[in-house]
Amino acid sequence: MRWEDLKPGQSVRICDNHDSGFGGRCGSIVAIGTFIGISERIGALIDIYEPLLIIIEPEALEEVDFESLPSERAEFDIRPIKL
């Protein structure tokens, strides 16, 4: 993909055999651009539905439809509770 095509909330797939070791995984873009300590655009922050976020360069991402995401994926609302 290109920088111009990336947008937060977009569903993406990491290309197979990516150097990060997360190739083939699907996720959602959280943010795009620069991150702490770096002054240039380096990639997109991706939520791969695990307890971590990863930064992947746009060239290693491809857009996917929501319907093609893994069936084990679940969405839920988190609401604060009063103690």
Provide structural commentary:
It contains no helices and five strands. It is mainly beta. The protein has one domain: SH3 type barrels. A five-stranded antiparallel β-sheet has the order 4-3-2-1-5, with no helix packed on it. A hairpin with a 1-residue loop joins strand 3 (43-50) and strand 4. The protein is globular, with a radius of gyration of 14 Å. The mean pLDDT is 82.
Structural class: mainly beta
> Average pLDDT value?
82
SSE order: EEEEE
The CATH architecture name reads Roll
- How far apart are the first and last residues' alpha carbons, in Å? 46 Å
Order of strands in the sheet with the most strands?
4-3-2-1-5
> What gross morphology would you assign?
globular
CATH topology: SH3 type barrels
Main beta-sheet annotation? 5 strands, antiparallel
